[in-house]
Amino acid sequence: MSTSGSAAAKNTGHTESHSQKQQEKPWWTWTKRALTVLLFVLVFGLLFNLVKNLEWQEVKDAITGYKTTTLLLGAAIALISYGLFSSFDLLARHYTQHKLPARQILPLAFVCYAFNLNLSAWVGSLAVRYRLYSRLGLEVGTITKIFTINVVTNWLGYIILAGIIFAARLLNLPDEWNLGATALQLIGFGLLLVAAIYLLACRFSKRRTWKIRDHEITLPTWQFAILQATMGAVNWMLMALLVYILLPEEAFYPTVLGILLICSIAGIITHIPAGLGVLETIFLTMLQHEFNKSEILAALLGYRALYFLLPLCIACVAYLVMEKRAKAMRGSNEKSN
Questions:
Q1: 136-174 pLDDT per residue, tens
Q2: DSSP letters of 282-330?
Q3: What is the pLDDT of residue 26?
């Protein structure tokens, strides 16, 4: 699915939108900030309560007890996941028909994903994506379509997986969460319905394009939508697999996957960068009836190191290289002119 509109209409819409934001800013901005701070304090209050009696030496022993082969396997899973997520931009290239080569697209998408995952609203991949793609000659409308394809692919995979996990009650929840399991099951059926509507619309809808205000919404082909669902779901499964291999052998993979999916939504709601504290709080709460807290926390620290911090370091270096190349190209163009 993608959006587009005329340049004049976009400029007008941008002006109106900017004006509305200015009008809303005095109260809405401060309200959002207050809620974010409140949720931040709540999350870390819950986390402190969970780990206040934790033996940190046990956490250290659990971390140092990982085999080198396990850590290398985890790094490989993270690399494959980032490669797959970056390939969402190749899907978008096929859809938009722009001509940038994969050797330019994949590093750019990698940087955007690492920044978005770690820094969230502080930086975000959208602004970085516009900056880097525009330097490569793409227009704003095309970049918007690329971003839209990425979002739909990612969350279509999420919706399908969460729908299956929740509807089939594959989460091994604590006994006191029995009522929560019923609610999750209903949510699961609802998510599967949403995914089915999208896929069936891509397959059977005779009308492919709708115009809403100054934007066009165009459905992709059925085959394209299936590829979106597959790539999105596999990427989420790889993320959960990394946590799974770091947990004790008795861990149940569908439960790990389901908890990770819940953590992702909770992280978005709280607006906390990288879901810091949110991930730990939810995993500890939902798995402490099965494993020692030190084992759970060690696995999560390993997950953050391999899937968050290591890619972020690589992305920072890659971004600096891209900036340096762009500066060199600007200097060359100025000399030629």
A1: 999 988 998 999 999 999 999 999 999 999 999 998 877
A2: HHHHHHTTTS-HHHHHHHHHHHHIIIIIHHHHHHHHHHHHHHHHHHHHH
A3: 66
Q: For residue 112, what are its two tokens?
A: 């955007």
Residue 14 lies in a domain: no
Q: Please give the sequence-ordered ranges of beta strands (E in DSSP) within the chain, or none if there are none.
A: 2-4, 209-212, 215-218
Domain membership flag for residue 108: yes
- The full length of the chain comes to 337
Sequential DSSP letters for 6-38: -HHHHHHHHHHHHHHHHHHIIIIIHHHHHHHHH
Number of domain units in the chain = 1
Note the pTM of the prediction, 2 decimals: 0.83
pLDDT computed for residue 276 by the predictor:
77
Question: What is the model's pLDDT at position 45?
Answer: 66
Question: What local confidence, expressed as pLDDT, does residue 64 receive?
Answer: 87
Beta carbons within 10 angstroms of residue 244's beta carbon: 21
Domain that holds residue 319: 66-324
Q: CA-CA distance, 10 to 186, in Å (whole number)?
A: 40
Q: Output the pLDDT for position 73.
A: 97
